[in-house]
Amino acid sequence: MQCTCFTIQTPAITTFVNNIHMSSAPKGNKLVEMELFVATIESGSFSLAARHFCMSPSAVSKAVARLEARLRVTLLNRSTRKLSLTPAGESFFHRSKCLLSELDDIEAGMTQDALPSGPCASIPMCHSVN
Hints:
This protein has a domain at 25-107: Winged helix-like DNA-binding domain superfamily/Winged helix DNA-binding domain (Arc Repressor Mutant, subunit A), CATH 1.10.10.10. It contains five helices and two strands. It has helices at 11-18, 30-43, 46-52, 57-71, 87-114; strands spanning 76-78, 83-85. InterPro entries: LysR-type_TF_proteobact-type, LysR_HTH_N, WH-like_DNA-bd_sf, WH_DNA-bd_sf.
């Protein structure tokens, strides 16, 4: 299955992350850790990803470390100057982007389903017959 992804901004997860401190988040929240990992790669640093989510770089780094520990694989090669993906990290990054993009599509579909489909909204009215 081929998956093409262009953006990663899951509103529900972004709101969730913005409204909590990672220390109070459930340990191992898979979607939050995944989105933080993807944001770290896309931005190129823990600091920029942290700024996007109004978190500390340490909290983002710890979330990615929890993700690696849970998966039992190293996703990132870390140095003082740059981050680079391991082969496993490369695969996980692309698959995560696709999954998060699919989540965006599902949420957007639900929003579209809730809207009236035609140019005019149908409003049920009660009337009495004499």
